[in-house]
Amino acid sequence: MGGRPLGQHFLQDPRIIDQILAAANPQPGQKILEIGPGRGALTYPMLLSGARVLAVEVDEQLAARLKPADHLRVVRQDILQTRLSELLADGPYKVVANLPYYITTPILEKVLQEGHGLIDELVLMMQHEVAERIVKPANRLSGSLTHFVRFHAQAEYLFKVPPSAFLPPPEVDSAVLRFRLHAPPEDCLARRFFDILRRSFAQRRKMLRSSLKGLINDEQFQKAGVEPQRRPETLHFEEFLALERCSRS
Ligand code: SAM
Fold first, then answer.
1. Which domain holds residue 23?
2. What digits encode the pLDDT tens for the residues 191-237?
3. Which residues of 190-221 are buried (b: 16+ CB within 10 A; e: fewer)?
4. Which atom in ligand 1 lies closest to the alpha carbon of residue 82?
5. For 1-33, how does the pLDDT look when each residue is reduced to its tens digit (9 = 90+)?
6. Is 231 in the same domain as 161?
7. 138 and 84, same structural domain?
């Protein structure tokens, strides 16, 4: 991402800012967690709508320069080092962020994994390529992140954002997605499910029979209705769930 320290690409296009605000739809009194407020391009318009914004910014100077305002709390912290169960204890929160792209995946993993009961919805801007991976299951772009997200949330692609919307412009297109958290699927052992995903996609060109050797045998593949010659990127979420279930039988 152009080598910018801390992924600092600030929104400058008022039409894109308006589009993100329309998607976030902040309401009076609503609690919003903003990750990386930067110079406040999204923060102040959200406050104008009457929402209460908790802004977590790792950059000391940026955090110090945010103008104090009613209903704004700035926490100078690395979001990845933050215990969400403490920070968001008075939730539920909506998360709104133009994410620092160098840590998109770890942030997503953290907020989805720790967010149950604390966060109900997220409106996030990220690299277009990562967005595509998330919303296109059973496609050559899909990976363990696709199914990890689907395990925790329903993701919806909202719109594409060109580099010119930012200052300085990043090198790639961006996209805004909405995530609605839901309860994890019933009758699924999460650790085992993620282990199957990890092993399947660690060698994405290999057949599942070989990647999952020792974990799932041919009979179990058959019970799950998944041919063992298939490659991981051809599987739908439900097929991975079936593999996890049958791997225990
Ligand atoms: N929200 C602003 C905007 O849209 O103009 C800034 C977005 S910029 C893409 C990402 C922001 O995240 C920067 O302000 C950066 O300092 C901050 N950031 C980077 N790493 C972070 C981390 N680990 N925890 C919290 N904030 C972080």
1. 4-181
2. 999 999 999 999 989 999 999 999 999 999 999 999 999 999 999 99
3. eeebbebbebbbeeeeeebbebbeebbeeebb
4. 24
5. 344 579 999 999 999 999 999 999 999 999 999
6. no
7. yes
Long-range contacts of 197-200 (CB under 8 A, 24+ apart): 197/144, 197/147, 197/148, 197/240, 198/144, 200/144, 200/232, 200/235, 200/240
Atom of ligand 1 nearest to the CA of 81: 23
Query: Same domain for 150 and 54?
Result: yes
Give me the number of domains the chain comprises: 2
User: Which of 181, 202, 224 corresponds to the end of one domain?
Assistant: 181
- 127: Cβ below 6 Å to ligand 1? no
CA neighbours within 13 Å on the CB side: how many for 99?
26
The phi and psi torsions of 28 (rounded to 5 degrees) equal -55, 130
Asked whether 129 lines ligand 1 (CB < 6 A), one says no
Shortest-distance Cα residue to atom 5 of ligand 1: 10
CATH of residue 235's domain is 1.10.8.100
CA–CA–CA angle 247, 221, 200 (5° rounding): 75
From residue 245, give the alpha-carbon distance in Å to each of 77, 151, 185.
40, 14, 11
Same domain? 126 vs 236:
no
Q: How far is the CA of 35 from the centre of ligand 1 (A)?
A: 6
Å from CA of 7 to ligand 1 middle: 6
Same domain, 141 and 43: yes
Atom nearest to 125 CA in ligand 1:
9
Full-model pTM: 0.95
